[in-house]
Amino acid sequence: MSDHEYTPKSKVGKWFNDRLPLLTLANHLTDYPTPKNLNYWWTFGGILTFCLITQIVTGLVLAMHYIAHADMAFDSVEHIMRDVNYGWLIRYIHANGASMFFLAVYIHIFRSLFYGSYKSPREIIWIIGIIIYLLMMAAAFMGYVLPWGQMSFWGATVITNLFSAIPLVGEGIVTWLWGGYSVDNPTLTRFFTLHYLIPFLILGLVVLHIWALHVPGNNNPVGIDIQKPSKDTVPFHPYIVIKDGFALLMFMIVFAFFVFYTPNILGHADNYIEADPLVTPAHIVPEWYLLPFYAILRSVPDKLLGVVAMLSAILILAALPWLDTSKIRSAVFRPLYRQFYWILVIDVLILGYVGAMPAEGLYLLIARVATAYYFLHFLVILPVLGFKEKTLPIPLSITEPVLGGSPNFATARNKESFTNK
Amino acid sequence: MSEKKTNRRDFLFTATYAVGAVGIGATIWPMIDQMNPDASVKALASTEVDVSTVDPGKTITVLWRGKPVFIRRRTLEEIAEAKAVKLEDLKHPEKDEDRAKNPEWLVMLGVCTHLGCVPLDQKGDYNGWFCPCHGSHYDISGRIRKGPAPTNMEVPKYEFVSANTIKIG
Amino acid sequence: MKNLFRISIFIILVVCFHNKSFAAEKVEYLKTDWSFKGLFGKFDRGALQRGYQVYTEVCASCHSMKYLSYRNLAEKGGPEFTEAQAKVIAASFEVKDGPNADGEMFTRPGKLSDKFVMPYENVKAAQAANGGAYPPDMSVLVKARGGGVDYIYSLLQGYEDPPADIKLDDGVYYNKFMYGNKIKMANQLSDGLVEYADGTNSTVEQMSKDVTTFLMWAAEPHLESRHQMGFKAILYLIILTILVYFSMKRIWSRIETEV
Hints:
The complex is a heterotrimer of chains A (421), B (169) and C (259). Chain A is built from 18 helices and two strands. Chain A is mostly helical and 421 residues long. Chain A has a single domain (11-266, 278-419), classed as Cytochrome Bc1 Complex, Chain C (Up-down Bundle). Chain A is globular and about 65 Å long. Residues 402-421 of chain A have low confidence and may be disordered. Chain B has 169 residues and is α+β, with helices and mostly antiparallel strands. Helices cover 30% and strands 28% of the residues of chain B. Chain B is elongated, with a radius of gyration of 26 Å. Chain C has seven helices and four strands. Chain C has helices at residues 2-23, 45-57, 83-91, 123-129, 148-156, 204-219, 223-252; strands spanning 94-97, 106-109, 173-174, 182-183. Classes of the chains: A mainly alpha (421), B alpha+beta (169), C mainly alpha (259). Chains in contact: A-B, A-C, B-C. Chains A and C meet through helix 4, helix 5, helix 10 and helix 14 of A and helix 1 and helix 7 of C.
């Protein structure tokens, strides 16, 4: 951080700041030099912060009315929906908020993939991000268990049973997770405790994520290192604040539409049936945001290997900064990578689709091909591409294409044509 | 000219801030209101008590809205004693007739008006109730006579729905 | 702005994609106009009151509605019986209460704060009385079925003689909208079964629609205020978005970069 020289103007401010440099921090955050060519894909960091705060606030409120007991959980949720003042609103915000959170985080992750934001010197930011993502999945899964509907119960049963795939100790671990011989009240209460805890862990990691970001500064659509502060940067406040705010409002309109007009469309009808350990629903599907990984799990015919494949699919992302051997960050200058990037996006969407379908026949075949391609992308295509790909020339600074008046970076970069002008 | 431009800019920013603030306020309200009594709590506002088994000179305590309600069947001496008190001797002047419509029955919230403890029956200097928490003395009409409590014990809304049944609330 | 457009498209695609992934299992349900659909959707009070009548006279002998209270019948956004009417309705039910001073349970007329009286003591008793099948609680039934109101509405009218190749056990009936076509509930509705207080002709179609509307309200009692608040919230967000957009343009005009 390059703003040690900041001194508050007022005497009291200086006195306080010498003892606890909060004002220096605030000054750093407002003046933080941000690349001025960030596009709207970069606004999802702010949107995610909003999502996290929304989930924490509505979650705290719900916890005041929710009862974590197998006999009363479902009733207490209905109590919230019917009797608590604005309870229906708060619960629908929380339930749809989880989906919006994941929607935003997927856009955030795929933005990183496109612009190479995970590459040196931002590996730590990326890895913290992956940990946050894992915690989000844990929180979302446990949160889905709390209403104690049929999907809650059977989702919990299926997911906890994944651990039974571990050789020798698997069964013991599952019994330990359940606190009994099946998913039951002890499971519910511990899931509630952890569901309450995890968001605060995420909050702490978000602070680290942003801290790690503020050391090298933001990546940008051109993907080159920039001088900061310079004519390539703008102060975070008001430029980026207002832009993030604008994007956030657009996001909130979509969010509000779900909450007020189709609050249950992203959920599953079976979760309005109270948990029944004697009857499994005909179709067990996880929430949409977990479907791609669910498809990977089911595409492997072996129990242990399926679990391993699913976990690897997430953990492989942590190795991404080293799997991608290209020195160029932004896909704008990597014509081949750009194509593979979009194939990956489609591949993940296909995995999501087959994850929602029964695991049989053609669907299973598609799931297997898509799973194979997913790993192929990260383990083979990315490392090889770094060596083989002929990249486009990159501009010297981000103002260069802007001054050139052309959004076509390739021509703007072309030194001759630039100087000839 | 440039001044006009500044004014317009100021107006735009002020409007944005103002509209934003309204939205934040409107969002915070549900988060606060959710802690108020909910619809099911409000609906449980009344309770009926059968008092046929209460002997004169005895008090029963029933639960209403989560608080104790004292129902005392007063003896003739007690009624006379309550009526004999002069209003000017009272910290919170109220006539006994106003507190007990039917003088035989005294119905009041058994909650000390000081800090909410439950006073003890037939204790204290005034032959009524005594709050052990901070030493408030109430007379046989539930009126504060000595100690830190500021007002008399509250009389809830109640009615006799039949000769032996009181409906509180 | 171009990016923003692309983001919006992406979001819409994801949503459509999600819905479509479940579309495959849907059958064609009977269609009718529901007054509560749409941005300003509201319940038809008449239908809710009639629906309540169908529920009490027909369904309630087997199906409980354990999350509803009699007070709900008089609440805003519901059937909106007057409070006096709701009190009369509540008092017409015998509610078990107690224990009294002697430690015994007793019955008394219902009050507004009481929950709907259940037809059976518990799930086991319900199963025993219905050949092993538990008549599901109807409080959130509409939300607990994939097809929602259309499914319930169709199911009530979907009884048919089974095709020749399907053999049904005793106490099992054929319904073309039921999952697997076999249902343990016999056809309950027949034309003129209920004598509507408001004189509406009680055809099977009418009763199905009324009772389904009632069940929708039971599952989403705050639907009307949700729609009203939603419209205001989204309108507000759009106004604020426009203001912020122009503020943003103004701020970014200080430097030579397109936002």
